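Quick one, T. Sequence first:
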Amino acid sequence: MKLTTISILILSICYNLDTSAEEFRPRVTTPLGVIEGGVGLSVNLNPYFKFEGIPYAKPPVGNLRFEEPEDPEPWKGIWKANSLTTCMQYDHFEKDVQNNYRVHGDEDCLYVNVYTHSLSDKANLDVLVFIHGGAFMFGRGASYGPEIIMDRKIVFVNFNYRLGPLGFLSTEDEVIPGNIGLKDQIKALKWVKNNIQYFGGNPDSITIFGLSAGGASVHFHYFTPESKGLFKAGFSQSGCMLNSWVLAENSKEKTEKLAALVGCPTDDSKTILDCLKSKPARQIVQAVKEYQPFLYNPFSPFGAVVDGKWSKNPVLLDHPYKLLKQGKVQDLPWIISYTSHEGLYPAADFYADDQHLIDIDTKWNEIMPFVLHYNETIDQKLKDEVSQTIRDHYLGNNPVNKETYNSLVQLMGDRLFIADIEKAARLHASVIKSDVYSYHFNYRGSSSFSELTSKSKNNIGVCHGDDTILLLKVKEISDSLQNDDDKKMSEFLINMFMSVMQKRSIDIKAKWEPLLKNAQDPYQILKINKHDDAILLSKKSLGNSEFWNRFPFQENDNILTQKDEL
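Structure tokens:
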């Protein structure tokens, strides 16, 4: 069936003919069974086929909770791929009637959504797979819709993976080795590799990209041997494996604490596992609030672990920094980016309520180690001194308020994202032959991710994720293509993606050079101000990295130094 068939259907709807999109159900035959989908429309009214809710693994419920994903069973009859799912999560973007952060979703959530312009297995369309963000704690694939990107003739895929304690709990041994959410991602990518041809996709032309924890996840797939051969290039927007919030600290202690919170004995790992499998999933996820003493901070108390130390089936063999230094990453093109005001996640939430700024000002040494994710990576005797040094550097003697808010945003962006993005990109470029590109997104469109937490449409900067919303239609944000500048900026970004997907290189209307191979050379970065204003810059450093590198956080360089000394 060809695209023209869908066009005829849309015309028939417009002219009130007998056939309707509701009645038309495209079908695909895969090795697991027949799948029935529907028809969608892009922002420019280009029709496409959609298949929403295809299982890529068995439901991880009952005895499969905390276990590695297993292949789904074949089905008889027709699988109706017409429903979107959400993995169970503690979500600070949504609140319940008591104004508490909401627990919602289901354990049965391991589904993939596919959008395509052809159902011919000879079409060989380029494939773009999106990995959603959310600090490994919240989010879902379906929040990032296809309506913008499907104006191009590609196959677009998004999916869910287990989150929070259900996806990233670890006893730091073989009983609950951890990284289950990352193993879900690998399983999903393998499903795409093995099945996308039935949806018109080219299994040898898969590009992955993600935002925030999704960007870090994309970077992860360069490290793990399990993802070798599953993709050809990757985009990491506002996240990488060296960011301070990616690797979880003290995972065993956190697991024991969670077990106690839900009434489980903590005698040994097996006892914990058996008991946690018997508890309601909602009770386990609700316990997340006990790990976040200030609002939802630290925003990523559960994350990736170096399971190579204890797992029979590890996916992260060593610390990412050490693996980078050793050159143990896939030699594939990588594009890494950040926005001008990254720190608006989480600082946009503080903008919404002056009391939050007062609390940060008066309890700085107590709150900031959690917000900046160093409470568990600094010697506790140094914590107050480090916290004060950070405040002095960014705020001087000034209070935290609306007048100094931009300094707070810069501080959070530098620490939580930009400084470590620079470190990762430099190292990555120095150990592979393929090109590594970097861009700085400086365009504030009609809409922004900051709307979600600031509860305001005021322009408070180019937020974390503001480039993503010009590529994908984020359901929870108002229309991101409200004027010609937005649309042209969207076209610029899509052209960038398409050039990498099709050519494995950058081909856009701007001079853009890859990072140099010597990690000490100037940092080559494209600053994108507007669709017709993108400038190649050479920077000595990013995100005040020289300042942040002074601190003895047990991260990255300091982890490697510590191990070498031992």
